[in-house]
UniProtKB/TrEMBL annotation:
Listed Pfam families: Shikimate_dh_N
Gene name of the encoded protein: aroE
Function: Involved in the biosynthesis of the chorismate, which leads to the biosynthesis of aromatic amino acids. Catalyzes the reversible NADPH linked reduction of 3-dehydroshikimate (DHSA) to yield shikimate (SA).
EC numbers for this chain: 1.1.1.25
Residues that hold NADP(+) according to the record: D90, G138, A139, G140, G141, A142, V230, G253
Binding site for shikimate: S23, R24, S25, T74, N99, D114, Y232, Q260
Protein name, UniProt field: Shikimate dehydrogenase (NADP(+))
Pathway given in the UniProt record: Aromatic compound metabolism; 3,4-dihydroxybenzoate biosynthesis; 3-dehydroquinate from D-quinate (NAD(+) route); Metabolic intermediate biosynthesis; chorismate biosynthesis; chorismate from D-erythrose 4-phosphate and phosphoenolpyruvate: step 4/7
Residues at the active site: K78 (proton acceptor)
MF terms in GO: NADP binding; shikimate 3-dehydrogenase (NADP+) activity
Organism: Aquitalea magnusonii
Gene Ontology cellular component list: cytosol
Annotated ranges, domain Shikimate dehydrogenase substrate binding N-terminal: 15-101
Length: 287
């Protein structure tokens, strides 16, 4: 095989985020590529949290120069990156956040596969989950995607809380415009909302590697809640551990990361990945 042929058959990908050394994305993409007969190199680009849109733009330009097919975007850049893109898919535009960037023909195209990843994972684990009243912590990039997902799955009322009330209000307004007035409210009294809720979605960085702790007092939980955390590293956050001890049904972000990766891989490669094979591979990877 010639050097040029070898280079052409190598899928060059990456992840842009902060505190991402525990990411399983390289293994997921590289192994699925191998199963499909491709060579894949997936690199981590771990940036300072205060990296600006201009900094992201410089990195994306470098990626385009060396021939990246695309990259994934994670915390805290899923909204910052919007200013660096040429166009957005319908889902990414509706959600207002991007986790996947295609680099094609000199253009940067933003997509959101996070919402689909969460929806697929949730439906598989809890097909009969009650969705009358759901509380969600976090209205950032991941929060926007999972809120979109849970409303698509049929949540009747979603109470949003974020450390930045203006961000929660902006997301609630956008979601109500898409899903119907009154479906989403901004939660000031999280404890009161949880007392009457069916489920809790945790979509803040609290609990992930580099951001230890609990996003709320354990006393606010009750056994009738299902509790879903978008974090997958560690697989059991302090919140999920406390919820499980109370008797709550729990779900980590592992399924979401597998399905969003499958969606991203399809965009990067043009091939159809085997999501179940990717899930089995993910399960074999230890913390």
């Amino acid at each position: 095989m010639s050097a040029s042929t070898s280079a052409a058959s190598t899928l060059l990908l990456g992840l842009i985020g902060q505190s991402i050394q525990g990411s399983r994305s390289p293994q997921l993409h590289e192994e699925e590529a191998r199963q499909l007969g491709l060579r894949c190199l997936y690199q981590l680009h771990d940036l300072p949290q205060d990296t600006s849109a201009a900094g992201l733009d410089t990195l994306l330009t470098a990626m385009q120069t060396v021939g990246y097919a695309g990259c994934n975007i994670t915390h805290p850049f899923k909204q910052t990156v919007l200013a660096c893109l040429d166009s957005l898919s319908d889902d990414a535009a509706a959600i207002g956040a991007v986790n996947t960037v295609q680099l094609r023909d000199g253009k940067r195209i933003g997509h959101n596969t996070d919402w689909w990843g969460f929806a697929q994972s949730f439906q598989q684990q809890w097909p009969q989950a009650r969705l009358d009243k759901v509380v969600q912590l976090g209205a950032g990039g991941a929060g926007a995607a999972v809120a979109h997902a849970i409303l698509t799955l049929g949540a009747q009322r979603l109470a949003l809380h974020d450390a930045d009330p203006a961000r929660a209000s902006a997301l609630a307004a956008r979601l109500n415009q898409r899903f119907g007035a009154g479906r989403v409210v901004v939660a000031d009294d999280v404890a009161g909302e949880l007392a009457a809720a069916d489920g809790l979605i945790q979509a803040t960085p609290i609990g992930m590697q580099g951001h230890p702790g609990l996003p709320l007092p354990v006393e606010w939980l009750h056994p009738a809640l299902w509790v879903a955390d978008v974090i997958y590293f560690p697989r059991e956050t302090a919140l999920l551990k406390a919820a499980k001890a109370l008797g709550c049904a729990t779900m980590n972000g592992g399924g979401m990361v597998v399905y969003q990766a499958a969606g991203a891989f399809r965009l990067f490669s043009g091939l159809n990945p085997d999501a179940q094979r990717m899930a089995r591979h993910f399960a074999s990877l230890s913390d």
